[in-house]
Amino acid sequence: MSKIALIFQREYLTRVRKKSFIVMTLLAPVLLAAVFAIPLLLASGDDDTITVRVLDEAGLVLPGLRAEPDPGSFRFEAATGSLPAAQAALKGHKNTVLLVVPAAIDPAQPTGVHLYTATTLGLGQPQRLEGMVRRQLEVQRLRRAGVAPEVVHPTHAVPFELVTSRLDRTDATDDGMAWILGYGGGFLIYMFIFIYGIQVMRGIIEEKTNRIVEVVISSVKPFELMMGKVLGIAAVGLTQFVLWVILSTTATSAVSSAFGLEKVALAKPSTEMRGPGVAAAAPTDAPADTPAKPALDPKKQATAELLGAFKSQNWPLLLAVFLFYFLGGYLLYAALFGAVGAAVDAETDAQQFMLPITLPLVLTFVVAQTVIIRNPDGPVAVWMSLIPFTSPIAMVLRLPFGGVPGWQLALSMALLVLGFVGTIWLAGRIYRIGILMYGKKPTYRELSKWLFYKG
Amino acid sequence: MGRVPNRVRGAPLPAGMVRLSAAPLPFASLMDTSAPLLSIRHVSKQYASHRALDDVSFDVPAGTIFGLLGPNGAGKTSLIRTITQITAPDAGEIWFRGERLNPSHISQIGYLPEERGLYKKMQVGEQLVYLARLKGLPKAEAVRRIQGWLDRLDFKGQAHKNVEDLSKGMQQKVQFIATVIHEPELLILDEPFSGFDPINANLIKDEILELRRRGTTIIFSTHRMESVEELCDHIALINRSRKVLDGPVKEIRNQFRSNTFVVSGTAPHPPILAHPDFEVIEQDRPAESRHEFRLVVRLLNGATPNTLLKFLLDRSPAQVTSLQELVPSINDIFIRTVREAETVGLEMRNEE
User: Fold this and answer.
1) What pLDDT does B217 receive?
2) A210 to chain B: which residues are within 8 Å by CB?
3) Are A335 and A426 in contact (CB under 8 A)?
4) Helices (H), A350-402
5) Is the pLDDT of residue A144 over 60?
């Protein structure tokens, strides 16, 4: 077994067996599922059905409310008797409210609509109820003005969607889908580089402060130790990533089935989002989650469209490119993080050297959210997707939008390979000197001298 | 100049007594008949503005304990790092068993650095197996040997504990096992007793002697002299990046002999040695009431201890209870050599 393989094995096994790894691996999908579930919970409020007793003195809203096509958790019934009697009847009833529409109400200028409750309503519930009443009053107003309500009734509006077609591609594209894939992929790479790059740095600082490093490098070359660590941690990251995809797919689909489709659909009108907007709002990053989305949409047509967009992507290419930039970007940055770890004695000293490393990373991510997403084939996007320090995020972002010429992709990949070979060489030079230097905080000038030390 | 120390105090030593040349030792063959295990030839190493090693040459005979001595910052660790191939020398060569030192020798060298440590969150057994395999031992063999060592050094049921849960003493033992597990031919111990408690230091000392008995060559780097005389067969003294002397301990001590003797006894009056052949360096009366005296005398002009004794017995009513040659300890030699080098360095700077 080669020495790099031995070091790789140790780095991998000790990390994968750590409690923190297991906890994070299990917890992250749960957190993701929570991010997915909390808006639904907030939107749907209490799980129980709320009975709305309507004291419709004017006789304007109750029939319409009863015919409401999407009543959510509300169930409407007529209240009997006078207002005090109806108020008295409310006592002791949980999940029951009294809606009073006064007899003298003017649908054009509605006032005096009152809601009495003996319980606390869920977040957003009164607003939702208000919206339904407003719509009924609107229908009445239109009717009085001589307009047939069917013509303008908002609930009868025909769903409309703008379909974008690119002339240079035969299949229909869906920018919503491209956005999810690009942004999600870029975000994953950004996170992966940060989390695991810093782990490389910490691991090296730990070896330095433990003073084991000199014992180890009397057996292996410093470069082997560094590469074994960088690759071992990459494997840990890939393992975690794969487990997250599996677990979060399971968790999100479990959540959506637990809430049931109607509740999910309820969340939609309240956020005023329709069609592709829903897909974009769903807090999912991994491409593996997308099959769950069409099931959330009640409209068959939308489902078909989403499926079409899903199919229109060149999945094998996307996945291969994603993995390439995922690993290539990590290797490029992990080597630099490793050099920082070797140069300092403690993590607190690492700050000054971290800035130039994290800057291009954060910059790409910030630019990605605005410039690249808005204009994926513009000059900023093209340049950023070619420069090795920014290309892992920028290229993954651009690719799903479908406008990347083959030569750009090939050039970007080649530059990234050159980039990480370069940073690994650089890091190796700093590393071999740095790990033997104790108790001294080097300056950039000293670091540059280390590059040219012999052996 | 500068290589020949200027002997400031006392009479000059006979010429040629301090070894300063890089030529092979004539005495090496007396101590050991085999070829040197390790041969350092004109090794230099430069770090930016600091010259860590300056044309250092010496041989380490096989099967001996070799003391690498020198004050802090003299270049010992730099030299060891070139032997362990952690760094490469800028100039010069190192030969190991007649071959140019190369990565294949790593598995034959064991190194206990002065800055040492272990992975704290790793189990003892697992850690030792890992370190042994890095040295090229197959897994099964590593496990077997580690079991043997752990049994021998009283690790009952502690092999599965994390290193951080062990006592300091036990951690030190783990460290030592990790250094010798691959049964290296050359063992390099950098300040091996620093950080070890007295019990473990003794245990390690016994193990070192046992290893030598079985043929391991040991380089023992230290700036503390207590254990050198007890353990070392050979020494090399490094000061200010240069080797200033080397050779078998006995020979070096002989070289530094200055024909000085300690005579003690009783006499009513302190014996007065007004004689051109005897130079009294020190004279005191430890217990005046009992007429005790003690003299430190250097013999000059070819005088022998017998001349001194005869002179004392003939000229004074003294009872001589002991006559002993004053052989300098390695510690004395070390301090003297380093001080002289400093004086020389100072003079040289003044001249400039």
Assistant:
1) 94
2) 117-120
3) yes
4) 351-367, 373-374, 379-384, 391-398
5) yes
- In angstroms, the separation between the Cα of residue A396 and the nearest Cα of chain B is 38
pLDDT in tens, A255-309: 667 665 444 444 444 333 333 433 333 344 444 444 444 444 444 555 555 556 6
Yes or no: say if A214 and B85 are a contact pair by the CB < 8 Å rule: no
For residue B32, the model assigns a pLDDT of 45
pLDDT at A288: 41
Q: How far apart are CA A238 and CA A232, in angstroms?
A: 10
User: What is the Cα–Cα distance from B148 to B142, expressed in whole angstroms?
Assistant: 10
Residue A175 confidence (pLDDT): 67
Greatest mean pLDDT range, A237-251, A368-382, B58-72:
B58-72
A 10 A CB-CB count for B132 gives 22
How many A×B Cβ pairs under 8 Å? 66
Whether A17 has a pLDDT exceeding 50, the answer reads: yes
| Residue A173 CB partners (closer than 8 Å, separation 6+) | A164, A165, A166, A309, A312, A401, A402
- Distance from the B46 Cα atom to the nearest Cα atom in chain A, whole angstroms: 9
Q: Is B96 exposed, middle or buried (0-12, 13-18, 19+ CB in 10 A)?
A: buried
DSSP A414: H
Q: What's the distance, Cα to Cα, between the start and end of chain B in Å?
A: 13
Choose the mutation target among A202, A215, A225 for the interface with B, i.e. most B CBs under 10 Å.
A215
Q: Whole-angstrom Cα distance, residue B174 to residue B122? A: 12
Cβ proximity of B298 and B11 under 8 Å:
yes
> Please, what is the angle between helix A391-398 and helix A175-210, to 10°?
160
Find the CB nearest B115 among A7, A211, A222: A211
Query: Touching check for B204 and chain A: CB below 8 Å?
Result: no
Q: Which residue in this structure is represented by tokens 């064991």?
A: B110
Q: Tell me the C-alpha distance between B324 and A184, whole Å.
A: 88
- B302-322 tens-digit pLDDT: 888 888 888 888 876 778 889
CA-to-CA distance for A214 and A226, rounded, in angstroms?
A: 13
Q: Best residue in B82, B134, B188, B189 to probe A by mutation, most A CBs within 10 Å?
A: B134
Residues in chain B closer than 8 A to A437 (CB atoms): none
DSSP B275: B
CA distances from B340 to A417, B27, B295 (A): 58, 25, 26
- Chain A nearest CA to B113, separation (Å): 7
Q: Give CA separation, B281 vs A56, B323, B331, in Å.
A: 126, 15, 20
Give the per-residue SS3 of A15-77. Answer: HHCCHHHHHHHHHHHHHHHHHHHHHHHHHHCCCCCEEEEEEECCCCCHHHHHCCCCCCCEEEE
The residue of chain B nearest to residue A203, with distances taken between CA atoms, is: B119
Q: Which residue of A has its CA nearest to B105?
A: A219
CA pair distance A450, A410, nearest whole angstrom? 34
B194-219 pLDDT per residue, tens: 777 788 888 888 988 999 999 999 99
The pLDDT of residue A298 is 47
A206-233 per-position pLDDT tens digit: 888 888 888 888 888 888 999 999 999 9
> How far from chain centre, in Å, is Cα B25?
17
Q: What is the pTM of this model?
A: 0.69
Chain A residues with CB under 8 Å of B121 CB are 14
Q: What is the pLDDT of residue B311?
A: 83
Q: Which residues pair with B67 in a beta bridge?
A: B220, B235
Question: In a 3-state reduction of DSSP, which class is residue A249?
Answer: helix
Q: Which residue has the tokens 């996307």?
A: A318
Instruction: Pick the closest to residue A436 from B190, B162, B56, B67 (CA basis).
Output: B190
Residue A170: per-residue pLDDT = 46
The closest alpha carbon to A101, from A120, A79, A122, belongs to A79
pLDDT at A20: 87
